[in-house]
UniProtKB/TrEMBL annotation:
GO BP, one annotated term: SREBP signaling pathway
Keyword annotations: Endoplasmic reticulum, Glycoprotein, Membrane, Signal-anchor, Transmembrane, Transmembrane helix
Source organism, top-level taxon: Eukaryota
Predominant location category: endoplasmic reticulum
Pfam families: Band_7
Name of the protein this chain belongs to: Band 7 domain-containing protein
Amino acid sequence: MDPQQRRPETARAPPVGEPGGDISSIFIAFGVFAAIAALVMFPSSLVHQVPEGHVGAYWRGGALLNIITEPGFHLKLPFITNYEPVQVTLQTDQVKDIPCGTKGGVMITFEKIEVVNRLRKDFVFDTLLNYGVNYDNTWIYDKIHHEINQFCSSHSLQQVYIDIFDQIDERMKEALQADCTRYAPGIEIISVRVTKPKIPESVRRNFEQMEEERTKVLIAIEKQRVAEKEAETKKIMAISEAEKNANVSMIHMQQKLTEKDSSRREADIENQMYLDRQKSLADADYYRVLKEAEANKLKLTPEFLELKFIDAIARNTKIFFGDKVPNMVLDQRLLGNFLNHSTKDKDGNLEMSTDT
Protein backbone atom coordinates (compact mmCIF):
# COMPACT_ATOMS: atom_id res chain seq x y z
CA MET A 1 0.00 0.00 0.00
CA ASP A 2 1.21 3.49 -0.78
CA PRO A 3 2.68 5.23 2.31
CA GLN A 4 0.91 8.43 1.32
CA GLN A 5 -2.40 6.64 1.68
CA ARG A 6 -1.50 5.36 5.15
CA ARG A 7 -0.33 8.76 6.34
CA PRO A 8 -3.76 10.06 7.39
CA GLU A 9 -4.23 6.98 9.54
CA THR A 10 -0.83 7.29 11.33
CA ALA A 11 -0.89 11.04 11.65
CA ARG A 12 -1.68 12.24 15.12
CA ALA A 13 -2.84 15.62 16.28
CA PRO A 14 -0.09 17.83 17.66
CA PRO A 15 -0.27 18.31 21.36
CA VAL A 16 -1.71 21.43 22.83
CA GLY A 17 0.81 24.13 23.04
CA GLU A 18 2.55 23.13 19.84
CA PRO A 19 2.27 25.47 16.81
CA GLY A 20 0.29 22.91 14.69
CA GLY A 21 -2.29 22.30 17.40
CA ASP A 22 -3.02 25.97 17.90
CA ILE A 23 -3.67 26.52 14.20
CA SER A 24 -6.16 23.58 14.03
CA SER A 25 -8.05 24.88 17.02
CA ILE A 26 -8.23 28.31 15.43
CA PHE A 27 -9.65 26.90 12.19
CA ILE A 28 -12.25 24.84 14.04
CA ALA A 29 -13.33 27.80 16.09
CA PHE A 30 -13.48 29.96 13.00
CA GLY A 31 -15.63 27.37 11.20
CA VAL A 32 -18.07 27.16 14.07
CA PHE A 33 -18.24 30.93 14.28
CA ALA A 34 -18.82 31.19 10.54
CA ALA A 35 -21.62 28.63 10.70
CA ILE A 36 -23.32 30.47 13.55
CA ALA A 37 -22.93 33.79 11.75
CA ALA A 38 -24.37 32.33 8.54
CA LEU A 39 -27.29 30.90 10.45
CA VAL A 40 -27.95 34.27 12.07
CA MET A 41 -27.40 36.42 9.00
CA PHE A 42 -28.77 34.02 6.32
CA PRO A 43 -31.32 31.71 7.92
CA SER A 44 -32.74 30.72 4.49
CA SER A 45 -29.46 29.04 3.57
CA LEU A 46 -30.06 26.45 6.28
CA VAL A 47 -33.87 26.23 6.62
CA HIS A 48 -36.03 26.26 3.50
CA GLN A 49 -39.70 25.68 2.69
CA VAL A 50 -41.12 23.41 -0.03
CA PRO A 51 -44.50 24.88 -1.18
CA GLU A 52 -47.64 22.82 -1.63
CA GLY A 53 -47.90 21.15 -5.04
CA HIS A 54 -44.10 20.86 -5.27
CA VAL A 55 -41.33 18.56 -4.12
CA GLY A 56 -37.80 19.51 -3.13
CA ALA A 57 -34.80 18.45 -5.25
CA TYR A 58 -31.18 18.87 -3.96
CA TRP A 59 -27.73 19.23 -5.53
CA ARG A 60 -24.45 19.03 -3.65
CA GLY A 61 -21.36 20.12 -5.48
CA GLY A 62 -23.36 20.04 -8.73
CA ALA A 63 -24.44 16.41 -8.29
CA LEU A 64 -28.15 15.59 -7.99
CA LEU A 65 -28.92 13.88 -4.69
CA ASN A 66 -31.36 11.02 -4.59
CA ILE A 67 -33.42 12.89 -2.04
CA ILE A 68 -36.94 14.18 -2.73
CA THR A 69 -38.73 16.04 0.04
CA GLU A 70 -42.43 16.68 0.54
CA PRO A 71 -44.00 20.15 1.12
CA GLY A 72 -43.01 21.76 4.43
CA PHE A 73 -39.87 23.03 6.25
CA HIS A 74 -36.57 21.22 5.72
CA LEU A 75 -32.82 21.67 6.57
CA LYS A 76 -29.82 21.70 4.24
CA LEU A 77 -26.14 22.50 4.46
CA PRO A 78 -25.65 26.19 3.71
CA PHE A 79 -23.42 27.14 0.76
CA ILE A 80 -22.90 23.44 0.01
CA THR A 81 -26.32 21.99 -0.85
CA ASN A 82 -28.51 23.71 -3.44
CA TYR A 83 -32.29 23.29 -3.48
CA GLU A 84 -34.95 23.70 -6.20
CA PRO A 85 -38.74 23.25 -5.86
CA VAL A 86 -40.21 21.13 -8.65
CA GLN A 87 -43.94 21.40 -9.44
CA VAL A 88 -45.80 18.08 -9.57
CA THR A 89 -49.34 19.44 -10.10
CA LEU A 90 -50.96 20.58 -13.33
CA GLN A 91 -49.11 23.41 -15.03
CA THR A 92 -49.63 25.25 -18.30
CA ASP A 93 -46.67 26.06 -20.53
CA GLN A 94 -47.24 28.73 -23.17
CA VAL A 95 -45.23 28.47 -26.36
CA LYS A 96 -45.41 31.76 -28.26
CA ASP A 97 -44.59 33.00 -31.77
CA ILE A 98 -44.06 29.74 -33.64
CA PRO A 99 -43.29 30.37 -37.34
CA CYS A 100 -43.89 27.68 -39.92
CA GLY A 101 -44.23 27.31 -43.65
CA THR A 102 -47.15 25.54 -45.30
CA LYS A 103 -46.92 23.04 -48.12
CA GLY A 104 -47.55 25.83 -50.62
CA GLY A 105 -44.76 28.02 -49.21
CA VAL A 106 -46.89 30.51 -47.27
CA MET A 107 -45.34 31.61 -43.97
CA ILE A 108 -47.72 31.71 -41.03
CA THR A 109 -47.20 32.21 -37.29
CA PHE A 110 -48.95 30.60 -34.34
CA GLU A 111 -49.04 33.34 -31.71
CA LYS A 112 -49.62 31.02 -28.76
CA ILE A 113 -49.94 27.32 -28.02
CA GLU A 114 -50.77 26.22 -24.49
CA VAL A 115 -49.69 22.80 -23.22
CA VAL A 116 -51.24 21.53 -19.99
CA ASN A 117 -48.89 18.96 -18.46
CA ARG A 118 -47.84 17.35 -15.20
CA LEU A 119 -44.66 15.72 -13.85
CA ARG A 120 -45.40 12.57 -11.89
CA LYS A 121 -43.90 12.60 -8.41
CA ASP A 122 -42.30 9.14 -8.62
CA PHE A 123 -40.42 10.15 -11.80
CA VAL A 124 -39.00 13.47 -10.52
CA PHE A 125 -35.49 12.15 -9.80
CA ASP A 126 -35.08 10.32 -13.15
CA THR A 127 -36.45 13.27 -15.14
CA LEU A 128 -34.18 15.81 -13.41
CA LEU A 129 -31.20 13.47 -13.70
CA ASN A 130 -31.67 13.11 -17.47
CA TYR A 131 -33.04 16.52 -18.51
CA GLY A 132 -32.48 18.93 -15.62
CA VAL A 133 -34.85 21.34 -13.95
CA ASN A 134 -35.83 22.86 -17.30
CA TYR A 135 -36.99 19.56 -18.72
CA ASP A 136 -40.00 21.26 -20.30
CA ASN A 137 -37.71 23.19 -22.68
CA THR A 138 -36.74 19.91 -24.30
CA TRP A 139 -40.04 18.06 -24.29
CA ILE A 140 -42.59 20.86 -24.59
CA TYR A 141 -41.20 24.13 -25.98
CA ASP A 142 -38.73 22.69 -28.50
CA LYS A 143 -41.00 19.76 -29.28
CA ILE A 144 -43.97 22.04 -30.08
CA HIS A 145 -41.84 24.02 -32.55
CA HIS A 146 -40.76 20.81 -34.23
CA GLU A 147 -44.24 19.23 -34.45
CA ILE A 148 -45.90 22.43 -35.70
CA ASN A 149 -43.35 22.78 -38.49
CA GLN A 150 -43.76 19.13 -39.40
CA PHE A 151 -47.53 19.56 -39.54
CA CYS A 152 -47.46 22.76 -41.61
CA SER A 153 -44.96 21.42 -44.12
CA SER A 154 -47.26 18.51 -45.00
CA HIS A 155 -50.50 20.51 -45.33
CA SER A 156 -51.74 23.42 -47.40
CA LEU A 157 -52.80 26.77 -46.02
CA GLN A 158 -56.46 25.91 -46.62
CA GLN A 159 -56.09 22.77 -44.55
CA VAL A 160 -54.09 24.37 -41.74
CA TYR A 161 -56.23 27.50 -41.47
CA ILE A 162 -59.69 26.06 -42.09
CA ASP A 163 -60.22 22.42 -43.04
CA ILE A 164 -58.34 20.49 -40.33
CA PHE A 165 -57.56 23.25 -37.88
CA ASP A 166 -59.82 21.60 -35.32
CA GLN A 167 -57.59 18.50 -35.42
CA ILE A 168 -54.30 20.25 -34.60
CA ASP A 169 -54.89 20.17 -30.82
CA GLU A 170 -55.34 16.43 -30.71
CA ARG A 171 -52.48 15.73 -33.12
CA MET A 172 -50.05 17.86 -31.10
CA LYS A 173 -51.13 16.15 -27.88
CA GLU A 174 -50.63 12.68 -29.39
CA ALA A 175 -47.21 13.59 -30.81
CA LEU A 176 -45.94 15.09 -27.54
CA GLN A 177 -47.25 12.24 -25.42
CA ALA A 178 -45.75 9.60 -27.71
CA ASP A 179 -42.21 10.96 -27.35
CA CYS A 180 -42.60 11.69 -23.63
CA THR A 181 -43.85 8.16 -23.00
CA ARG A 182 -40.80 6.76 -24.83
CA TYR A 183 -38.04 9.01 -23.48
CA ALA A 184 -39.45 10.82 -20.43
CA PRO A 185 -42.26 8.69 -19.01
CA GLY A 186 -42.75 10.95 -16.00
CA ILE A 187 -44.19 13.78 -18.16
CA GLU A 188 -47.94 13.53 -18.75
CA ILE A 189 -49.55 15.69 -21.46
CA ILE A 190 -53.12 16.57 -20.43
CA SER A 191 -54.23 18.80 -23.31
CA VAL A 192 -53.01 21.18 -25.99
CA ARG A 193 -54.73 24.41 -27.02
CA VAL A 194 -53.78 25.97 -30.35
CA THR A 195 -54.81 29.50 -31.32
CA LYS A 196 -55.64 30.55 -34.85
CA PRO A 197 -52.42 31.26 -36.79
CA LYS A 198 -51.57 34.64 -38.27
CA ILE A 199 -51.51 34.63 -42.07
CA PRO A 200 -50.51 37.33 -44.59
CA GLU A 201 -53.00 40.16 -44.88
CA SER A 202 -53.72 39.59 -48.57
CA VAL A 203 -54.37 35.91 -48.00
CA ARG A 204 -56.54 36.73 -45.01
CA ARG A 205 -58.69 39.07 -47.11
CA ASN A 206 -59.12 36.36 -49.71
CA PHE A 207 -60.20 33.93 -47.02
CA GLU A 208 -62.63 36.51 -45.63
CA GLN A 209 -64.13 37.06 -49.07
CA MET A 210 -64.40 33.31 -49.59
CA GLU A 211 -66.05 32.99 -46.24
CA GLU A 212 -68.48 35.80 -47.06
CA GLU A 213 -69.42 34.13 -50.35
CA ARG A 214 -69.76 30.80 -48.62
CA THR A 215 -71.93 32.43 -45.99
CA LYS A 216 -74.13 33.98 -48.69
CA VAL A 217 -74.52 30.61 -50.37
CA LEU A 218 -75.35 28.99 -47.06
CA ILE A 219 -77.88 31.75 -46.33
CA ALA A 220 -79.47 31.26 -49.76
CA ILE A 221 -79.60 27.51 -49.25
CA GLU A 222 -81.08 28.00 -45.81
CA LYS A 223 -83.69 30.42 -47.16
CA GLN A 224 -84.60 27.95 -49.87
CA ARG A 225 -84.83 25.22 -47.29
CA VAL A 226 -87.02 27.40 -45.10
CA ALA A 227 -89.25 28.25 -48.08
CA GLU A 228 -89.56 24.57 -48.93
CA LYS A 229 -90.38 23.79 -45.34
CA GLU A 230 -92.99 26.55 -45.28
CA ALA A 231 -94.53 25.31 -48.55
CA GLU A 232 -94.52 21.76 -47.23
CA THR A 233 -96.06 22.95 -44.00
CA LYS A 234 -98.79 24.84 -45.89
CA LYS A 235 -99.41 21.78 -48.04
CA ILE A 236 -99.67 19.59 -44.99
CA MET A 237 -102.01 22.10 -43.35
CA ALA A 238 -104.17 22.28 -46.51
CA ILE A 239 -104.32 18.49 -46.73
CA SER A 240 -105.13 18.32 -43.06
CA GLU A 241 -107.86 20.95 -43.46
CA ALA A 242 -109.31 19.14 -46.48
CA GLU A 243 -109.24 15.84 -44.63
CA LYS A 244 -110.88 17.50 -41.66
CA ASN A 245 -113.63 18.99 -43.85
CA ALA A 246 -114.11 15.66 -45.61
CA ASN A 247 -114.34 13.90 -42.30
CA VAL A 248 -116.81 16.50 -41.03
CA SER A 249 -118.90 16.14 -44.21
CA MET A 250 -118.79 12.38 -43.90
CA ILE A 251 -119.87 12.64 -40.30
CA HIS A 252 -122.73 14.98 -41.22
CA MET A 253 -123.78 12.70 -44.08
CA GLN A 254 -123.59 9.69 -41.83
CA GLN A 255 -125.64 11.58 -39.29
CA LYS A 256 -128.26 12.47 -41.90
CA LEU A 257 -128.32 8.88 -43.18
CA THR A 258 -128.72 7.67 -39.63
CA GLU A 259 -131.57 10.15 -39.09
CA LYS A 260 -133.21 9.09 -42.37
CA ASP A 261 -132.82 5.45 -41.50
CA SER A 262 -134.27 6.10 -38.06
CA SER A 263 -137.20 8.00 -39.64
CA ARG A 264 -137.74 5.16 -42.14
CA ARG A 265 -137.70 2.59 -39.42
CA GLU A 266 -140.07 4.71 -37.36
CA ALA A 267 -142.42 5.06 -40.39
CA ASP A 268 -142.22 1.32 -41.04
CA ILE A 269 -143.09 0.66 -37.44
CA GLU A 270 -145.99 3.12 -37.58
CA ASN A 271 -147.23 1.63 -40.86
CA GLN A 272 -146.96 -1.86 -39.46
CA MET A 273 -148.81 -0.73 -36.36
CA TYR A 274 -151.50 0.89 -38.54
CA LEU A 275 -151.78 -2.23 -40.70
CA ASP A 276 -151.95 -4.40 -37.65
CA ARG A 277 -154.61 -2.14 -36.15
CA GLN A 278 -156.68 -2.05 -39.36
CA LYS A 279 -156.29 -5.79 -39.73
CA SER A 280 -157.43 -6.20 -36.19
CA LEU A 281 -160.41 -3.91 -36.83
CA ALA A 282 -161.26 -5.74 -40.06
CA ASP A 283 -160.96 -9.07 -38.35
CA ALA A 284 -163.16 -7.74 -35.55
CA ASP A 285 -165.78 -6.46 -38.04
CA TYR A 286 -165.66 -9.73 -39.95
CA TYR A 287 -166.05 -11.66 -36.76
CA ARG A 288 -168.90 -9.40 -35.65
CA VAL A 289 -170.72 -9.68 -39.00
CA LEU A 290 -170.12 -13.40 -39.03
CA LYS A 291 -171.50 -13.77 -35.56
CA GLU A 292 -174.46 -11.50 -36.40
CA ALA A 293 -175.17 -13.61 -39.46
CA GLU A 294 -175.03 -16.74 -37.38
CA ALA A 295 -177.27 -15.10 -34.80
CA ASN A 296 -179.68 -13.96 -37.49
CA LYS A 297 -179.71 -17.45 -38.97
CA LEU A 298 -180.72 -18.79 -35.64
CA LYS A 299 -183.35 -16.18 -34.87
CA LEU A 300 -184.90 -15.55 -38.34
CA THR A 301 -187.53 -18.22 -37.94
CA PRO A 302 -191.02 -17.96 -39.56
CA GLU A 303 -192.52 -17.09 -36.24
CA PHE A 304 -189.94 -14.32 -35.64
CA LEU A 305 -190.47 -12.96 -39.14
CA GLU A 306 -194.22 -13.00 -38.64
CA LEU A 307 -193.75 -11.18 -35.36
CA LYS A 308 -191.55 -8.59 -36.98
CA PHE A 309 -193.95 -8.21 -39.88
CA ILE A 310 -196.86 -7.70 -37.58
CA ASP A 311 -194.85 -5.30 -35.46
CA ALA A 312 -193.88 -3.30 -38.54
CA ILE A 313 -197.44 -3.21 -39.77
CA ALA A 314 -198.52 -2.17 -36.36
CA ARG A 315 -196.15 0.71 -36.22
CA ASN A 316 -197.30 1.91 -39.63
CA THR A 317 -200.22 3.98 -38.35
CA LYS A 318 -202.44 5.22 -41.08
CA ILE A 319 -205.96 6.85 -41.11
CA PHE A 320 -208.40 5.49 -43.63
CA PHE A 321 -211.62 7.24 -44.63
CA GLY A 322 -214.52 5.27 -45.93
CA ASP A 323 -217.14 2.78 -45.07
CA LYS A 324 -214.77 -0.26 -45.08
CA VAL A 325 -211.56 -0.91 -43.17
CA PRO A 326 -208.84 -2.88 -45.05
CA ASN A 327 -208.50 -6.38 -43.66
CA MET A 328 -204.86 -7.00 -44.74
CA VAL A 329 -203.60 -7.42 -41.25
CA LEU A 330 -206.33 -9.75 -40.33
CA ASP A 331 -206.01 -11.72 -43.52
CA GLN A 332 -203.78 -14.69 -42.65
CA ARG A 333 -203.60 -15.78 -46.20
CA LEU A 334 -201.69 -12.65 -47.11
CA LEU A 335 -199.02 -13.42 -44.47
CA GLY A 336 -198.81 -16.99 -45.60
CA ASN A 337 -198.35 -15.90 -49.19
CA PHE A 338 -195.54 -13.56 -48.06
CA LEU A 339 -193.74 -16.37 -46.29
CA ASN A 340 -194.21 -18.78 -49.11
CA HIS A 341 -192.78 -16.45 -51.67
CA SER A 342 -189.69 -15.66 -49.56
CA THR A 343 -186.55 -17.83 -50.09
CA LYS A 344 -183.19 -18.16 -48.41
CA ASP A 345 -179.78 -17.75 -50.08
CA LYS A 346 -176.74 -19.92 -49.48
CA ASP A 347 -175.57 -17.91 -46.50
CA GLY A 348 -178.90 -18.17 -44.78
CA ASN A 349 -180.14 -14.66 -45.77
CA LEU A 350 -183.75 -14.24 -46.76
CA GLU A 351 -184.50 -13.08 -50.30
CA MET A 352 -187.83 -11.98 -51.75
CA SER A 353 -188.85 -13.71 -54.98
CA THR A 354 -191.06 -11.82 -57.45
CA ASP A 355 -193.26 -13.28 -60.12
CA THR A 356 -193.03 -11.90 -63.55
